[in-house]
Design goal:
Number of helices: 2
Distance between the termini: 16 Å
Helix content: under 10%
Number of strands: 12
Number of domains: 1
Structural class: mainly beta
Length: about 280
């Protein structure tokens, strides 16, 4: 492999901008670290990277569009002790403020959009078939402060024949003793005219953090960066590191429910990337 480049991942709670985030507080508000939709003083809509508590009653536009969020309050870049102590929850089903039309596991859970489930504290998600005597490793509440300690670095390198690329991740400060997965975001996954289903970055796409929250993950993908204009091209433009609230992997799908139902974005690149790379079929 050559042409290696390093990327720093950013802490987030957001996948796409709807739902506004993939975690909530106990009151059912979104805890957003990512692109926050606001109306600027000149009337234009801005989606700058910042942090806020956002109401689940926020207006939901058509897929591919954005509207200002109903912001309950702003979150400081340096969290207050009270905000650090916020206990994070899953999103309920059906997903609130959702306009994404994709089914994430069509062969496994095709009816995900019709399911009803409450919001659970992340540490109390009812893992299927789990018995107390089996020794669950996650016991205490997962707080916003703990979530924001995550750090990640990605090294991307291209094979000498340019037919594949390697992705090598190193993590620290993640939730200890937890199952994580890594997904790829491709340029047409959020295309309003015909979105593609987001997929794993490698299969299996899992790693388990140690007792300190450290972890590593590696994958090699065939032709992830086809040249612009290539027929059927669907380049990888971002990667997302997901905490799995049900502590389960779904093979070729990134989750059953998606978008805060069972997958929860914790690290990603703030903007589309990898434009400097070109690979071959």
């Amino acid at each position: 492999m050559d042409n290696e480049k390093l990327f720093e991942l950013s802490v987030t709670t957001q996948g796409p901008t709807y739902p506004p985030s993939e975690v909530m507080d106990a009151q059912g508000n979104f805890i957003v670290i990512g692109r926050v939709n606001r109306r600027a003083s000149d009337g234009a809509l801005r989606s700058d990277w910042s942090s806020a508590v956002v109401s689940a009653s926020s207006a939901v536009p058509a897929f591919g569009e954005n509207l200002p969020y109903d912001i309950v309050r702003e979150l400081d870049e340096t969290l207050t002790p009270a905000d650090e102590a916020i206990v994070l929850h899953t999103l309920p089903l059906p997903l609130p403020c959702n306009n994404y039309p994709m089914v994430f596991a069509p062969q496994q859970c095709p009816d995900a959009g019709s399911l009803t489930r409450p919001s659970y504290p992340l540490h109390e998600v009812p893992i299927p078939d789990l018995r107390p005597e089996d020794g669950p490793k996650r016991k205490g509440p997962i707080t916003l402060g703990a979530w924001c300690r995550a750090r990640g670095e990605l090294a991307v390198s291209i094979a000498q024949d340019r037919r594949s690329a390697a992705f090598d991740f190193a993590f620290s400060g993640l939730i200890p003793d937890s199952l994580y997965t890594v997904m790829s975001l491709r340029q047409r996954d959020l295309d309003p005219s015909g979105p593609t289903r987001p997929g794993p970055l490698g299969v299996p796409n899992v790693f388990v953090t140690d007792g300190y929250g450290d972890g590593r993950y590696q994958a090699v993908l065939p032709n992830p960066f086809p040249a612009a204009g290539t027929p059927g091209a669907n380049r990888i433009v971002n990667v997302v590191v997901l905490w799995m609230s049900y502590q389960m992997n779904r093979g070729g799908a990134i989750g059953w429910f998606g978008l805060g139902g069972d997958i929860h974005a914790q690290l990603k690149l703030r903007a589309g990337s990898f434009g400097e790379f070109v690979t071959l079929p």
